C-alpha cells in the first residue's frame, strides 16, 4: 500500500534555512511541502489554505511569533490543528513550557540534523508518541551561543554595534515581549546601558543588520 504523502509547512523567518529545509524535504518521497511562511500571519493563512499534517515552526518571527501562532491555533482561530515541531536557537525553559502548554508536539534546538527532524515528522504524522524535547549533550552557555551567532553573521567585534546587538539579543531571549516594544523599551534600555542615545539604533547605515526585527547601526 502506497503511503499518503505527509504535508509539511515551514514557518521560519530565516530564508536561507527555509531553502535548505525545502531542498531536503523535496528529496523525501513521503513528504510534500505545501508552503513556506516567513512570519506568523502567513503561517496561519497557509494552515487554513493547505491543511498541513506537520508544521515546522520557529519560535521567533516577525508580526506574530511562534508562541502567538500556537495561541491562535489553540483558541480555534484557524480551522485545522497540524502537528507542531517548534524550533529555537536557545533552550529557554519558560518558553519551552509555554509552547508545550499551547500544544507543541515536539521542541528541537538549532542547529540540528535534518534526518532527525524527518524522523520526528514521520512519527508525529503516524500518531507515534515522541519525547517532547531534544537537547544537546552539554549545557548551552547562552552568552557563548549568542557570541558565536554574531561571529557567523560577520559582525566585527571592535565596533560599537557589535555590543549593542549582542546585548539586544540577550535581552530579547530573556524577555520575548520586548520584540513588541523595540523602539519604546529595547532601544532606550540598550542606550542607557552604553550611555548613548536610542537614535544611534535608527536610520540609514553603510552596514545595517537585522536580528530579528532589530535594526542596528554598525558604525
TrEMBL record:
Example GO molecular function: calcium ion binding
Modified residues (4-aspartylphosphate): 58
Residue ranges occupied by any Response regulatory domain in the UniProt entry: 7-125
SMART domains: REC
Co-factor binding comment: Binds 1 Ca(2+) ion per subunit.
A GO cellular component annotation in the UniProt record: cytosol
Protein name per UniProt: Stage 0 sporulation protein A homolog
Organism: Desulforamulus profundi
Upper classification of the organism: Bacteria, Bacillati, Bacillota, Clostridia, Eubacteriales
Amino acid at each position: 500500500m502506497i503511503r499518503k504523502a505527509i504535508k509539511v509547512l515551514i514557518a521560519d523567518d530565516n530564508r536561507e534555512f527555509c531553502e535548505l529545509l525545502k531542498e531536503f524535504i523535496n528529496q523525501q518521497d513521503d513528504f510534500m511541502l505545501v508552503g513556506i511562511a516567513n512570519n506568523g500571519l502567513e503561517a496561519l493563512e497557509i494552515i487554513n489554505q493547505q491543511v498541513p499534517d506537520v508544521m515546522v515552526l520557529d519560535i521567533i518571527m516577525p508580526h506574530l511569533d511562534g508562541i502567538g501562532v500556537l495561541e491562535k491555533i489553540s483558541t480555534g482561530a484557524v480551522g485545522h490543528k497540524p502537528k507542531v515541531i517548534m524550533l529555537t536557537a536557545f533552550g529557554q525553559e519558560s518558553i519551552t513550557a509555554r509552547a508545550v502548554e499551547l500544544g507543541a508536539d515536539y521542541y528541537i534546538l538549532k542547529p540540528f540534523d535534518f534526518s532527525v527532524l524527518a524522523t520526528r515528522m514521520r512519527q508525529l504524522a503516524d500518531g507515534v508518541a515522541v519525547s517532547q524535547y531534544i537537547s544537546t549533550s552539554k549545557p548551552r552557555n547562552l552568552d557563548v551561543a549568542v557570541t558565536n551567532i554574531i561571529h557567523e553573521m560577520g559582525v566585527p567585534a571592535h565596533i560599537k554595534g557589535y555590543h549593542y546587538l549582542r546585548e539586544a539579543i540577550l535581552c530579547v531571549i530573556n524577555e520575548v515581549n520586548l520584540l513588541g516594544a523595540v523602539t519604546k523599551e529595547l532601544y532606550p534600555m540598550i542606550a542607557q546601558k552604553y550611555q548613548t542615545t536610542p537614535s544611534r539604533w535608527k536610520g540609514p547605515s553603510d552596514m545595517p543588520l537585522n536580528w530579528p526585527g532589530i535594526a542596528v547601526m554598525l558604525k
